UniProtKB/TrEMBL annotation:
PROSITE patterns: IG_LIKE. One of its GO terms (cellular component) is membrane. It is found in: Membrane. The gene is LOC105910533. This is Uncharacterized protein LOC105910533 isoform X1. PANTHER family: SIGNALING LYMPHOCYTIC ACTIVATION MOLECULE. The keyword Membrane applies. Its main location: membrane. Residues 241-356 form the Ig-like domain. It comes from the Eukaryota.
Length: 500
């Protein structure tokens, strides 16, 4: 079943935005509360039947070019707002209301055979900065901080009395078409923000403040007899809307992209998509396809590790663990336009950026043990010398000369290597134990020795060598792509290469 996420950012009917969404495929959509919403369910209805369900209830069926609404949806007021246009397969909802929110299912069948040719879900979320809530029964209502909140407490006030309480305090009472506020609520400042409209039984709070949040009790009685005809509670939650979303993308030393999303607002929830598709749907497939393609067709991206592996460090997060986080690490295989969306109960916002390709920027080599590493002339080289620097000292030598030491979380370059020009090209990153050489020069080639000791005792816990070879990547591709050369660069035998 194909999931389609429909996000309607409803910024108020006064802005006059029409919400148009192609739900024949995955797509994010934006619209306006109180305005028309257009959902294209299918492109060509000729010769097909369509069934549209909300959860477990059928809303309507299209059969032989005729639309039939089912049961409680088959009313004049509903059909006045909902209309399906067979000519273009579009459902029009006008005006959109909060109760239109929900999970819908679209089923499409061949009319002649009854064979299923489509089955997908549409998650419809109606939101807006003008908060309107049906509070004629038990309800949880969300209001925008600083914006108007409309609570419809009863549909027909005529012949009824209404009492509105916050916890154990009465706030106001409607009797004989007159509204009376009590005690500390009977002040000019409070009346300026709180108003009850008798004609339609709606309480208006404008502007909404944090202190307006709480649990309220609504009691309704017959005016003539005093008989109770209704009692329910309203949970009012006031939230700050989502502000502008800030998306940042940076490359790690392992070809991964670290992406971070931030925004202001209450109760923020983050979600991610690439080219309109939820990240959870594409992360595994794209990563697998990209890695397979890299293994088969791109020897130069493999050359940094003598074992033929470009495995990322063990500490790299698994995409499947938490895709609602505001910070993720994406493997290089995921490409396209990345969108971060931030939302809460009353508004949403997003930002989109093109994901850069990081794997091609340099040569990566696991040098945590004896290894032969290849680097591209003029490009960055990443040598991971150790996985965890905490509690350890490290010395890095060339022949008999110490180049730098890492001790007590501080990196010190020695003698002739302690120059601005050298330090500008050579950098050791303690967070992940990686030496970065950028740009790589032919003089950087050589045999290096890595010595690791425990910080507290001075005990040796590691001693290995790294053979670094700097090559002109274009020249090497032209003259030396034989199985023997490829096996040398990847650490495999010629027979293993020929079997690929």
């Amino acid at each position: 079943m194909q999931a389609v996420l429909l996000l309607l950012l409803l910024a108020g009917a006064s802005k006059g935005l029409d919400s148009i969404c192609d739900v024949t495929q995955d797509a994010p959509c934006y619209g306006a509360l109180g305005g028309p919403v257009y959902l294209q369910l299918m492109r060509d209805t000729t010769g097909y039947e369509l069934r549209f369900h909300k959860e477990h209830k059928t809303v309507f069926i299209l059969r032989r070019s005729k639309t039939v609404f089912d049961e409680e949806f088959n009313t004049p007021s509903f059909r006045q707002r909902w209309q399906f246009v067979p000519d273009n397969g579009t459902l029009i909802i006008n005006p959109a209301e909060r109760r239109d929110s929900g999970t819908y299912r679209v089923e499409i069948y061949e009319q002649s055979t009854g064979k299923s040719v489509g089955d997908n879900t549409v998650q419809l979320i109606i939101e807006g900065l003008d908060s309107i809530c049906d509070a004629t029964q038990d309800a949880a209502c969300y209001g925008v901080l600083g914006g108007p909140v409309y609570l419809q407490l009863m549909r027909d006030p005529s012949g009824h009395e209404l009492s509105f309480h916050n916890e154990h305090k009465p706030i106001f009472r409607l009797r004989r078409s007159k509204t009376v506020f009590y005690d500390e609520f009977n002040t000019p400042l409070f009346h300026q923000r709180w108003q009850f409209v008798r004609d339609n039984g709606t309480l208006i709070i404008n502007p909404a403040e944090k202190r307006d949040a709480g649990t309220y009790r609504v009691q309704i009685h017959e005016e003539s007899t005093g008989k109770s005809v209704g009692e329910h509670t309203v949970q009012l939650i006031i939230e700050a809307p989502v502000s502008v979303v800030n998306l940042s993308i940076s490359c790690s030393a392992y070809g991964e992209r670290r992406v971070s999303c931030s925004s202001n607002g209450d109760g923020l929830q983050y979600s991610w998509s690439v080219d309109g598709r939820p990240l959870s749907e594409i992360s595994t497939n794209q990563s697998t396809e990209s890695q397979t393609k890299t293994n088969k067709t791109s020897p130069n991206t493999q050359e940094a590790s003598p074992s033929g592996s470009t495995e990322r460090p063990e500490s790299s997060p698994d995409l499947d663990t938490d895709l609602s986080s505001s910070t993720l690490t994406l493997p290089e295989g995921i490409q396209g336009h990345l969108t971060c969306s931030a939302r809460n109960n009353i508004s949403s916002a997003s930002e989109t950026q093109l994901l850069p390709s990081c794997i091609s920027v340099g040569s990566i080599c696991d040098a945590t043990q004896t290894a032969t590493c290849y680097g591209a002339l003029g490009g960055p080289v990443y040598l991971q010398l150790m996985r965890d620097t905490s509690g350890h000292d490290l010395s890095f030598r060339n022949n008999n000369e110490t180049i730098f030491r890492f001790r007590a979380s501080k990196t010190t370059f020695i003698k002739e290597f302690n120059t601005p020009s050298f330090i500008q090209r050579w950098q050791f990153v303690p967070d992940n134990g990686t030496l970065i050489i950028n740009p790589a020069e032919r003089t950087d080639a050589g045999t290096y020795r890595v010595e690791i000791h425990e910080d507290s005792t001075g005990k040796s816990v590691g001693d290995h060598t790294v053979q670094l070879i700097i090559e002109d990547e274009r020249k090497d591709q032209e003259v030396d792509l034989t199985p023997t050369s490829m096996s040398r660069r990847r650490g495999r035998t010629p027979e293993e290469v020929q079997m690929q």
